[in-house]
Amino acid sequence: MKSGSKRALLISGRSSWIRRGVFSAAVLTLMVPLVTLFQGSAANAADTLISQSKPVATSSIESANFPATAVNDGNLTTRWGSTWADPQWIQIDLQGPATISQVVLNWEAAYAKSYQVQTSPDAITWTPVYSTTTGAGGAVTINTTASGRYVRVYATQRATTWGDSLYEFRVYGTVTTSTTGYVPANPQVTGVTPSQYTPPNAYFHEFQANCAANHELPDDPIVKYAQPGASHMHTFLGNSSTFASSTLASLQAGGTTCLAPGDKSGYWMPTLYNGSQAVDPVGPQVIYYKSGVIDYTSVRAFPPGLRYVVGSPTATATDFATNPGYVAGWECGNSYNTTDFPANCPAGTQLNIRLQSPSCWDGLYLDVPDHKSNMAYPVNGRCPNDHPVAVPMIEFKMAFPISGDMSQVRLSSGRGFSFHYDFFNAWDQPTLNALMVHCINGGLQCDARGYDETQPSKGAVLNAQYLLP
Fold first, then answer.
1. How many helices (DSSP H) and strands (DSSP E) are in the chain?
2. Does the predicted TM-score (pTM) go above 0.85?
3. What fold is seen in the domain 34-175?
4. Confidence of residue 179 (pLDDT cuts 50, 70, 90)
5. pLDDT averaged over the chain?
């Protein structure tokens, strides 16, 4: 094996069995120029890995221990596993039209015997670029000249009684990106390497932004900018001026229902309904700003105007449950960890939801066409190389005053698993910086004033009016 080649490490999660490269002598059905089965096959030196940390969707997961995102986290000891049934699929969104030169699959002991590798421009119409009915598992390299935004493994027959399971699903090639829809940061943050430092242990590194809901509109100034009425109904928190054509300047000039007047940010989510009646959270809701990475001392404040969407209105139950920002699903009474609304909530309880944002920024763009790929979730507590800038992880913790029969409860975007939210940063920068440094970098558990009641000697960042002194 040449120096610098990519090595395929296959470690079974069920045993210490390691595949030695003993493959079936049967001839594979090829739909591409060359397929190599290997223990350590090298990709062409000109190939670029374009799939790592990109959005992943799948037909099912065996359990939360084997999420879809394990296939492109760069870690050959984590894996995706499906339920024990046929057929199954897993796909990667390359987030732009791509020319694909190579696909590398690292199967676990539970592999697919019959499967296709397919590409698609829209995740609707699929074109097979490789097919086999005699798959032998192990590590498989598929050289191709395919194109598409989405790449999928579609498995129709398992080789074992278990589900289908992949350690890694890697796609190499080139993604074509357009400048349309990109909002560059000014200045852009370059030359950053993700921190590998492990600071002294601090159980908390957070502060709260307590912001109340204040209006509802069928607008979305991120996804449907300057298109009033073009979105499903949203409930807006924080900035009271947010509407379809909101900009950083208009938000900075607007009012806010956050406790800290310096937080002019726009926060919005799909409106919750009980039948035809909208149900809004009552009073200031908890929006946490936390460290999402191990090195909480490396987290820096959001740049003005950064915006993104967390979750998706088109998510399936599996997408929602396997989202890296998933915390505990919908909760009320004794019901928790549910991807959809509970059937019933005890009288007097509230319906709660939490969802966490990605906390690694690419340092380059305040917004991008899909309103997501400028951000990424950490991998094993560290930011990935293509999103090296650690910023706060926002956690929405919403409480809706609704109980009893939940059969008529829905979101304006659909079922419970379609919950998502948008964030448009319009903080007063000195206020945000002060809270960041004192609470997150300082390893404290702060309220909206930047005060940690368990460590009163540390003091507060803001005064009684929630302003910088």
1. 3, 29
2. no
3. Jelly Rolls (2.60.120)
4. low
5. 89
